[in-house]
Write a structure and sequence with these properties.
Elements lengths: L6 H8 L5 H15 L7 H25 L9 H6 L1 H19 L14 H27 L13 H5 L1 H18 L5
Length: 184
Amino acid sequence: MSDAYTVRGFWGKFWHQSLRWPFTSVSNYITRDVLRLPRPSILERYANISFTFFMSGVLHLVCNAILGIPPSESGAVKFFCCFPLAIIIEDGIEEFWHRVAGQDKVNIQPVQPVPFWQRLIGFIWVGVWMCVTSPWYLYPAARQQPDKDWLVPFSFIKAIGLVAVQATLVLYGIFLYFAVGGEI
């Protein structure tokens, strides 16, 4: 989670990676082999990112449809397709910062940690971006009928009670922390 102070870091390092590599492989094929965009180039870089997020949006759109959310109501594609814009904004601000601060990006040592204040601003940025854009994706699911078991056909909370589920989660968290060195 410490890398999630940029939108790129949130999706590239923090969030699950199971879809990233298959989608990146397809987007690389499209941008490099089909479109023959020069590599490396800004156009190829952002086209690659855009295709990857578009494919993720389409996959989530299909998942929403399976769960009973009509494609016309799903905000999945809109939600995922807004992230390349956020990454372009980040890259522009980073480039501006390097020019203003007089830092040469080539000579910056990669082991040098990002200052706390920069990470703090980054976490705020990512939080604001997610708060603004997440409703596009999450609200259609939240509007589903509460009595309809649309995601999972069985509820452990209804079966054993909320207190028992909470206690189980706390005990499991304690186990993870002490047994396998989990991070709080």
